[in-house]
Structure formats: C-alpha cells, structure tokens
Amino acid sequence: MDIQTRDGVADSYLVRPPGDGPFPGVLLFMDAFGLRPRLEEMADRIAERGYAVLVPNLFYRFGRTPLVDLAGMSDPDRRGEIFGTVMPMIQDLSRDKVISDTESYLDALGTEAVVAVGYCMGGRNALVAAEGHPDRIKAVASFHAGGVVTDQPDSPHLHVAALAGSTELYFGHADNDRSMTADNIKALEAALDDAGVTYTSELYPGAPHGFTMSDTAMYHEEGEKRHWMRLFELLDRVHPAG
Asked: Can you tell me the distance from the alpha carbon of 211 to that of 143, in angstroms, rounded to the nearest whole number?
C-alpha cells in the first residue's frame, strides 16, 4: 500500500491475518537494505500469529522500492558496497523525519496501539518513533540496532525518559558490534535505569550485526531463532492477539 506522509508517498508492505479483525498492530522498521522479500517473510511470520503488520519504505524520499541492486548481499564485500550506497539515505533520515513519518504509518495501520519492531538502523528508528509517540507505541523490540548511543544531542538514549510508564523496551544486541559497543550498551542501560523505563537488554553471544537477516552475509541462525523467541514472548505478553 502507499502511505501519504507530510513529505511524500511511502510505498509499504501490509499483511493481515484472514478475517475481518480488528487485529493488533505491529509496525516493522526495516534495516538499511530496505523493503524486500526477506522483510516481507518476517512480516508474514508475525502476521500468522494474529497481527496486522506494516513495513514502510523508510527511504521513500529517494524513490520507490527497490532503490539499489541488492544482488550479492550474501557476499561480505558486496554487502559493504551496498551499505555505502545507502548511507546517504540513512543519514538523511533525521529524528524529526522519523517521528513525523511514524504518525502517518500509525494512522495507516489503523490500530489504537502498536508494537514497533526494528532491525539494524530500524532498531534505532523504532526507538525514536516510540519516543515521539509514547501514547501510541506500547512496546519496542530492537534487534542488532546501531546508532542508539551517540555523542549528538539527538541520540536516542538521551530521550528515553519520554517512555517511562508507557512503553516497554527490548534490546537484542549483536556481539562485538562497532555500531553498538559494550560501552554504548552500558550507556543505554544507565539512561534507561535513570529514567525508570521498563526494559530488557541482552547480548547475543557470537551473533554479528545484522544477525537476523538470512539474505545477507551477517546471518546467524542461532541468533535469529533466539530473536523470534524473544519477540513473540514480548508480543504475547504486552500485545496479545486473539
């Protein structure tokens, strides 16, 4: 489906269970490689449990999906080349843009409250989205996120106080991740503790950044299986379907 935002039209993937609903909503924030079959498969798997799942193209300002040639992502060298191509799109996606776009995504999903799920850069953006809409996003599940802790004033970890008493957070961190180091994890957890936010923060030993993505060179089967278990535990507890 196409979603009208303040800045344009975001092409998106929406999947619902059979029947008339209403269904609880999940807003899935893509990784840097964009809306593609792998993310559709993941959305389908969540929908099978009774959820309406929306996966927007966060890079819609640069055009409709696909924006880059993703062939060869299972090759580590090719993956790096593709990442370099999408980096300007990642850098363009400011905090203000994420929060503004999320309002349109939530309206399109049409459920009163949702869980935001994000991968890689999507893990960061899911957190930012919740910080901007704590009354509409009841939980966040963030996996192998990067850029959650930076030295900039818009760093997501500096704004988590907005989530105290409203939104539960789960973080599944990749091991030895340059975009989310051990010191970064400690800083995030300290900020969450200081703000009184309900959260779980776990390290996935041996799992590299991007470990859930089976179409890339970073795939880690054990980490992916653990992520599904943690995600479904969270959904069943805070946002049950059926």
From this structure: 9
Of the candidates 56, 203, 75, which has an alpha carbon nearest to the alpha carbon of residue 117? 56
Closest CA to 189 of 181, 203, 179, 199: 199
Domain residue limits at 56: 2-238
Are the C-beta atoms of 106 and 56 separated by less than 8 Å? no
Active-site amino acid positions:
120, 177, 209
The tally of domains found in the chain comes to 1
Query: How far apart, in Å, are the Cα atoms of 77 and each of 60, 80, 151, 240?
Result: 26, 5, 29, 41
pLDDT in tens, 144-158: 999 999 999 999 999
CA angle 31, 36, 38 (to 5 degrees): 80
Q: What is the pLDDT of residues 79-95, one digit of tens each?
A: 778 878 899 999 999 99
Give the CATH number, domain containing residue 194.
3.40.50.1820
